[in-house]
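Q: My labmate handed me this sequence with no annotations at all. I'd like to see what the chain might look like in three dimensions before we decide whether it's worth expressing. Could you predict it?
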Amino acid sequence: MSSPAVKDTAPRNISADEIQMNTTSTSKMNENKLLDFLRPTLNHQLQQPQRTPEEELQKKKERQKKKNEKFKEKKRNRPDFINRLTRPIYHKYTYKKIRAQMMDDGIYHSHQININEEKKEVTINFKSPALLEEARTKMRVNYFSEKQYYKRW
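A: Here is what I predict for the chain of 153 residues:
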């Protein structure tokens, strides 16, 4: 009777070994499946919600507004925006004529030109103090006067 007991225990030991192997292999498989499940997938369409044209327009306006505010802050605080030259101007001058006259005389500016018609003056921004000083020597106070206008145009 001891031999049947051995037969009963032997298959149990094998099945226990098989169970151990199956649990280790299934746990590895489960780990792999779990890792695959947790690994991020690159599905761009799901990440970006579709926007209506009104939302797109609103977003563009907000971006432009931020850019404008940033530019205004730069104009107030950065030293390369502070290099300004102000001259009185004859009322018939236009932006094109101011730029053309400055180019003829070899005066190069890097920023905007503002014409204040109420005060009848023009403000020109230069990139560096050296360019500003060069322009000051070339542009006398009457650089944009009526006489200069009729002399050149």
